[in-house]
Amino acid sequence: MKMSEPAIAAISTPSAPGGIGIIRISGENALGIAAKVFTPISGEDLTASKGYRAYYGSAFAEGKKADEAVCLVYRAPHSYTGEDVAEINCHGGLFITNLILRAVIEAGARPAQPGEFTKRAFLNGKMDLAESESVMALIGASGRQAANAALNTLDGRLSGKIDECAKAVAGVCASLSAWVDYPDEDIEEITAGEMEKVFSDTKTALEEILGRYDSGRAMTEGIETVIAGRPNVGKSTVMNLLTGYERSIVTDVAGTTRDAVEEKVLVGDIVLRIADTAGIRQTDDKVENIGVEIAKKRLERAELVIAVFDGAEKLTDEDREIIALCKGKKSIALLNKSDLAPEVTAQETEQYFDRTVTISAKTGEGRDEFEKALTSLLLSSGFDSEAANLTGERQRDCCQRAVKHLEEALEALHSGVTLDAVNVCADCAVDALLELTGKRASAAVVDEVFSRFCVGK
Ligand code: GDP
């Protein structure tokens, strides 16, 4: 265990009014600093605490009582960071939490950088890099499956699998090095067949993990979606129906690289990022402007198209144009207005779309079928939140590099070049895997990972 670093402090709860606000202090003399700001009603000395205790008392700032509070005490190494930790739980007002944080800083702590608590946990061996990243994924999870996947990664499911892969390949490297470096020794030679099996089994295992990544994204980052359809088929009504889903999260994110406004909608476990609904929502004349040309551009970029048709009117030429545009895209046809007399049958669209669902956006009828269709379409590659799952592009990149180096190792093996060359490729694969878990990641990589964290975590 490393020595404790100087104490850091931050507000660990969101900066918004709330029932409780937590000021977290970690590091050398964290309890001494807490004791300068917080006095237990029992009169006990916080610095003598054995830890794992909650003390009720008063928090002081600017020379007078600031709030009633509870202070939780953890002792190194059994804390989140692996250091002594004190958490002052006060009332969750913006002013109060900041006032107490200032008092904590005046008492000797320095303000924590983004992710610094978790970085200390990493440096103290409490979790590896992949597990640290899952902390952010867990905080940011917008659905059950995403949260479960993040929790499993935090529990070490991915790291366990990656370590297993790294170990297997490193084992081959060790045998090769021994044999190459000490040719005169009587070291049992590893056969080409054995090496090939390790490389290709590992490659298959990593490819499985990579394969799950895209469907995992459907639950974490969201699927870029376009609602297409000629005017008046019910696009805005569909959008309203979707945003009503399970108290869906609706956030307007003004795009930085795109000119559209994006809305996030949770349907079951899937997050849809629906572009430019601002335009779609304005029904009157503006909708007329959303012609086929604009739809075309949006469709090019989209990962999913929800094509809406007026099921109470025969398909028009414009509808057929939209059908043609959806070709080659992941797509769902919605035959809307099922509460009216049907004029379009599912058979008419089924052949062009991955799924066709009859729906009444107005009454909500068919909503469950839509959710089922969406889930079966987007999670068809079998996302399993219980399995080893990658969190984010950094991990995916490491995994991909490992696969590439294993392919090179296999190629080197087949082409009969020297075993040194095989060894170099295999070693690069091990490197990529150890970078994923952080066991061999550079300081720059580690800094980059934690810079994406929020302050207080
Ligand atoms: P958009 O132009 O495609 O966005 O279509 P809107 O959502 O504005 O809907 C056009 C018209 O169709 C409005 O009068 C809606 O009330 C109506 N509408 C939408 N969905 C349904 C539905 O499921 N049933 C019925 N009867 N009318 C609907």
Topology:
Elements: E1 8-11, E2 18-26, H1 30-37, E3 38-40, E4 53-61, E5 64-74, E6 85-92, H2 94-106, E7 110-111, H3 116-123, H4 129-140, H5 144-154, H6 157-181, H7 192-220, E8 223-228, H8 235-243, E9 252-254, E10 261-267, E11 270-275, H9 277-281, H10 285-289, H11 292-301, E12 304-310, H12 317-325, E13 330-336, H13 346-350, E14 355-358, H14 367-378, H15 392-415, H16 419-437, H17 443-451
Parallel strand pairs: 1-7, 8-11, 8-12, 12-13, 13-14
Antiparallel strand pairs: 1-2, 2-6, 3-4, 4-5, 5-6, 9-10, 10-11
Helix pairs in contact: 4-5, 6-7, 6-16, 7-15, 11-12, 15-16
The structure holds guanosine-5'-diphosphate (GDP).
Description:
By secondary structure, the protein is of the alpha/beta class. It is 47% helix and 19% strand. The chain has a seven-stranded mixed beta sheet with strand order 3-4-5-6-2-1-7. Strands 9-10-11-8-12-13-14 form a seven-stranded mixed beta sheet, sandwiched between helices. The chain is flat. The structure holds guanosine-5'-diphosphate. The site of guanosine-5'-diphosphate has 18 residues, from α8. Guanosine-5'-diphosphate binds next to α8.
Which small compounds were modeled alongside the protein? guanosine-5'-diphosphate
What's the N-to-C terminus distance?
Answer: 21 Å
Describe the largest sheet.
Answer: 7 strands, mixed
- Find the CATH topology of the largest domain: Rossmann fold
Number of domains: 3
User: Count of DSSP helices?
Assistant: 17
Count of distinct strands: 14
Mean pLDDT: 86
Please give the share of residues in helix: 40-55%
Looking at the overall shape, the CATH architecture of the largest domain is 3-Layer(aba) Sandwich
Radius of gyration (Å): 28 Å
Shape: flat
Poorly predicted parts: 245-260, 276-291
**Corresponding CATH superfamily of the largest domain:** P-loop containing nucleotide triphosphate hydrolases
Instruction: Return the structural class.
Output: alpha/beta
Q: What percentage of amino acids are in beta strands? A: 15-25%
Could you state the oligomeric state of the chains shown? single chain
